[in-house]
Amino acid sequence: DMDDDSMDLFHPKGMKRRLPQAIIIGVRKCGTRALLAMLKLHPKIQAASDEIHFFDREENYSRGLDWYRRRMPYSFPDQITMEKSPAYFITDEVPSRIYEMDPSVKLVLIVREPTTRVISDYTQIHSHKTDKNKPHSKFEELAIQDGEVSIKFKAVRTSNYAKHFDKWLDVFPKDQIHVVDGDKLILNPVPELQKVEDFLGLDHKITYDNFYFNETRGFYCMKDDLMSKCLSESKGRPHPYIEPWILQKLHEFYRPHNARFEELVGMKFDWPQ
Ligand code: A3P
């Protein structure tokens, strides 16, 4: 796609690039790609395929809203444009910047059991390290210091959902942020997606017919009349074995933060106590 509006002429009448009316703001490694890909099954949703990183990166934000709009897919006037950039959730400047663009924008946050998220994050970071001669840090070396959970490890801080959520609530009313349970989205996507459809004011169009369980992948894949599609191999990576005492430490560390997060969002999660 060209990134200016010169292609408008070649699209059906009424189709153009629009600013998003709904944004998936995070959390990294909680199923942000799965959620957006599944929502795209809805005929009233158009979604940007890349992470735009508009609000969290100065070099992009400084280009202005028209640059952002031109990164969006073509849509009809009755469709909802969406994008997902998981770094938005943890970047301090982002809530007020999004509010400034559109105070009525709908925000979607997907979360997952915090300790599993740290391990998933670690697995992703480690998968990028290509230099096989340089041994990568073990999970324990990053996540634990002097026998306690280390907040020096960014992945540990990212899973403190309550702390980051506070900053969003300073700017947006709670009912403008819909929280998706990422663990449930993995096991049974349709009910979680129906709640998002309700939040976005859309009819329920995503159904069980849109999914089949792929035994090899161990995850649901998507289908409609035209296509059948699993997420890329980088989604649903095997996690390393972590010793039980480390898991225990992390569970204890997150317990009070999780309780506060449940309070803030008015939801209960099936997370370890
Ligand atoms: P793991 O690779 O740790 O299993 P994100 O897109 O935000 O990076 O999230 C990646 C996570 O999405 C994966 O983490 C995986 O568990 C989860 N996920 C949820 N539904 C999925 C699906 N249908 N197919 C593959 N991964 C899915």
Entry summary:
The chain is an alpha/beta fold and 273 residues long. It has helices spanning 32-39, 58-61, 65-69, 94-101, 114-128, 139-143, 154-158, 161-169, 182-187, 189-200, 244-265; strands spanning 16-17, 22-26, 45-47, 74-75, 80-84, 106-111, 144-145, 148-149, 177-181, 211-214, 219-223, 228-229.
Structure description:
This protein is an alpha/beta fold. The chain has one domain: Rossmann fold. Helix content is 36%, strand content 16%. The protein contains 11 helices and 12 strands. A hairpin with a 4-residue loop joins strand 11 (219-223) and strand 12. Helix 8 runs parallel beside helix 11 (244-265). The longest helix is centred in the C-terminal third of the chain and has 22 residues, at 244-265. The chain is globular, with a radius of gyration of 19 Å.
Oligomer: single chain
Within CATH, the superfamily carries the name P-loop containing nucleotide triphosphate hydrolases
CATH class: Alpha Beta
Outline, from the CA principal axes? globular
From the alpha-carbon coordinates, what is the Rg to the nearest angstrom? Answer: 19 Å
Keywords:
binds adenosine-3'-5'-diphosphate, globular, Rossmann fold, alpha/beta, 273 residues, 12 strands, five-stranded parallel sheet
How would the blueprint of this fold be written?
Elements: E1 16-17, E2 22-26, H1 32-39, E3 45-47, H2 58-61, H3 65-69, E4 74-75, E5 80-84, H4 94-101, E6 106-111, H5 114-128, H6 139-143, E7 144-145, E8 148-149, H7 154-158, H8 161-169, E9 177-181, H9 182-187, H10 189-200, E10 211-214, E11 219-223, E12 228-229, H11 244-265
Parallel strand pairs: 2-5, 2-6, 3-5, 6-9
Antiparallel strand pairs: 1-4, 7-8, 10-11, 11-12
This protein binds adenosine-3'-5'-diphosphate.
Adenosine-3'-5'-diphosphate binds near residues 28, 34, 186 and 231.
